[in-house]
Every structure is written in structure tokens, then in C-alpha cells.
Amino acid sequence: MIIEEIMNKDVYSLLPSNTVKDAIQLMKEKQIRHLPIVDNRNFLVGIITQHDLKNILPSSLHDHEQITYNTTLDKIMIKDPLIGHPLDSIEDIALTLYESKISCLPIVTGGKLVGIVTTTDLLYTYIELTGANKPSSKIDIKVTDKPGILSNIAEVFKKHKANVLSVLVYPDADDANSKILSIRVQIINPLLIIEDLRKEGFHVLWPNLPGIEL
Question: What are the CBS domain coordinates in residue numbering (predicted)?
């Protein structure tokens, strides 16, 4: 999935000549925490965040000049911010946000602002992709890391006509030769599936249901 599919395209922005007061008012009115700063041609020139504003107000001194509500944004904005492109993958954008410890990324094409994505957007997308927002159950299975194992597990779900919403694969912290498959299935009571998985010799870690041996 590319970032263009989830980015917010209706981006609120301000000019460098706008003031701190303008930024505070717009953030409050639109209930947003990030404001890209653009020039008259919509080219991105900076960004200001709610966190930035809290750090400079009500009184910070820079070169003996007090930052006030009438200070223009060009004096306090983050210039040359990190940016993304609409065709960037969600994974790449998430990695950029994580490694840079930032909470948003303006999305730019040809220097012009076309969207913005935040950590909240990525979190919601993750929830949707895994199916956690739908009535479902999660089954964690410890498996040997070898070809064909997922196909064997899928046969059990197929037998129960259970719709698999997502499959995530994690390394096993205790065994380098094993993986943890976290499977979300669109069924509320997975008891019969779990019983059949264990009959087939699979090690179900979760759910640990009362009365059933691990």
C-alpha cells in the first residue's frame, strides 16, 4: 500500500507571514496538531507543530527578542522538514517517522504540498489492515520456520470455513528456528479451530483457553 491511499489530502496550511496567533487559532479551530508552511505557490517551506508552539510560549528569549503572538512563522518554523512522496510505501513512511522521532510527514510532489500523514493515520491503517476493528479472534501459533507450514495451517481454517483477515509473522525470541504466526480470523468462538490445530500438532500460544492443555 502506498501513502497516497491514506494521506490526508485536505491539508490546512499557513504562509510564512502568518503569525503565531494565526497558527494557534487554526489548530484550535480545526483540531489539528501540525501545520505545513507554504509559499504563495503552495511550495512547502516549513512546518510548525503544536509541540513547537508550547515550547516557545508564553515567553522564550532568542537573541534577546521575545517570541510573541505576533511573531511571524518564518522566524520559528522548522525549515526544510523531512518529506514523503505519494508513491512511498506505508512501511517506508512508518520507518522514517520512527527513526526520526517525529509525529507527522508532509507529502510533497514537485516541491508542492499535496498531503500530510501522521502517526495516528498509520496506527489506524495498521488496525484496519489487521482486521482488529472487526468482530474477530486472534490465534497465535508457534511454528517451525520451514516452507509450506502456512499452507498446512490454512487447511485447518479452510475446513472450518473461517475467513482469515490477516497473518502477521514474528520472530520467536526464545528459538531462532521458530516463528510466531499471529492470525486474525473472522470468527468469535475459535475453540474448534484451536482444537483441530492442536490435533495437527501445532503449538497454539493464544488464546490459552481454560481446560485445554498447551
Answer: 7-64, 77-136
Supply angle C-alpha 105, 85, 18, rounded to 5: 50
Q: Would 211 be classed as within a structural domain?
A: no
pTM: 0.80
Burial 122-152 (b: 16+ CB within 10 A, else e): beebeeeebbeeeebbbbbbbbeeeeeeeee
For residue 196, give its domain range: 134-206
Note whether residue 214 is domain-resident. Answer: no
pLDDT tens digits along 95-145: 999 999 999 999 999 999 999 999 999 999 999 999 999 999 999 999 998
> What is the rounded distance in angstroms from the CA atom of residue 166 to the CA atom of residue 181?
10
